[in-house]
Structures are given as structure tokens and as C-alpha cells.
Amino acid sequence: MVNNDGKYLGELIQGYKLLGYEYIDIENRSYTNSNLSTLPQDLYQLNNYIKNCNLCNLSKQKRSNSIFNNIEKKDIMVIGLIDIFDLNENCQKILKHIIENIFNFTNKDIHFTSILKCFTDKKYSVLKSEIKICIEYLYQEIKIVKPKLIIAFGDVYEILNKKDKKNSIAKIVYFNNIKLIPIYDLDYIDKNPSLKDELYVNLNSLQKKMGKI
User: Fold this and answer.
1) Which of 146, 170, 150 is nearest to 161 (CA)?
2) H or E element: which one contains 138?
């Protein structure tokens, strides 16, 4: 049953459609290659395109855009839900240990990015509609960079592959034929010391099996 407000909204949308406007249902919109074809085909232009995005409320509250750490193509891509470098000092130390001590990478080897591209100074509960908008930009970013390996923190793997990460942590899985390693959220690792030790052991074992990228 539709309440009066819903009925009015439906009539309003139909009225706008008659005038030539298009209604886009953000919650149920699916992103395909046809959506990506309209986005810039290089990182510099994509960066500028995202800076001017105002498709969700998050863009109106942002203090900055955190797009990519560089516009050069790298073999390694590290992805967080939000800006990884915006996390606390302990999380930064965990990230550094994983990147440098376990995988033997340096920051210069890595394309750091995130799903969400706008950040605020407030604690913010991420909405699915915001992820659905920003994920299109990430798909295009991955398509341009063409990484050989993606390290995905937190919910990133589940958002990309639409699968539970529980049985895939610290293992090699694939996204569009690209090797991907799901890892717990850095803040979650920080708050669970015993889990951190186990994760480090598993990642070290994985790195030895992987060899050089």
C-alpha cells in the first residue's frame, strides 16, 4: 500500500517524465560497461571529473576529495572504503607493516585509492546509495590502472565481488582476472591484537607462495 506522500511523489515523477526529465533510482541502479564508457579514459581527467561530482549528499559535506595518490599507473593497487591515510596512527603502522615488511613494497610501488571519494571531518555512516555512485569511479580507475594485484581492506572485497570475505581473508582471489587479497579493516585489526598476529602469519605465508609481482 502506498501512502499519500508516496502517491504524490509518484505522480510528480510521472509529470517530470512527461516534460522530458529522466528519473534515476540510485538505490537500484546497476553499473555496467555502458556507464563507464562516458567517464574519462585517463587518470588525470578522471581525477578532475570526480572533484566536480555532486551526485550525493556526501559531496555537499566534504572537506576534500581524496582521489588517488598519483596519476601514474602502478602494478599494485591498495583500496580502502575511505581514505586509508585518514586513519589513526596505529592503523598507519599496521598498513606500513603489511605493505613494507610483509609484501616488501614501498609507497612508490602502489596506487592508493578508496571507494568513497569525498571525506568530511564528521563521523559518517556510509550509505549504500553513496557507494553505488562512487563504485562506478573505482571500476573506471581499475580499468585505467590495470593493476596486477589489488589489496582490498575492509568491505572492499565484498562490495567489488558481492561475496562474503570471511573465508577469503589473506588468500588470493580474483576480480576481473586481477589477483586480489582481501584483508580486514585496519581499524578492526588494531582493536583485535590476537587477530593481528594471526593475520601477519597468514600474510607472510601467502607472500612466500606468491613470490615477486
Assistant:
1) 150
2) helix 128-145
Q: Which amino acid is at 72?
A: E
> Beta partners for 181?
151
DSSP run (H or E) holding 201: helix 193-210
How far is 88 from 147, CA to CA, in rounded Å? 27
Q: Are strands 76-80 and 110-114 parallel, antiparallel or unpaired?
A: parallel
Whether 146 and 45 have beta carbons less than 8 Å apart is answered as no
Do 120 and 58 form a contact (C-beta atoms < 8 A)? yes
Q: CA-to-CA distance for 172 and 180, rounded, in angstroms?
A: 6
> Tens of pLDDT along 22-47?
434 434 444 344 455 688 888 888 88
Give Cβ neighbours of residue 84 (< 8 Å, ≥ 6 apart): 78, 91, 95, 112, 114, 153, 186
How far is it, in rounded angstroms, from Cα 183 to Cα 103? 13
DSSP annotation of 180 reads E
Q: Residue 161: in which H helix or E strand, if any?
A: helix 156-161
Q: Give per-residue pLDDT as tens, 82-97.
A: 888 778 899 999 999 9
Task: Indicate the burial class of 193 (C-beta count within 10 angstroms; 0-12, 13-18, 19 or more).
Answer: exposed
Phi first, then psi, for residue 5 (nearest 5°) are: -65, -40
Burial class (CB in 10 A: 0-12, 13-18, 19+), 128: exposed
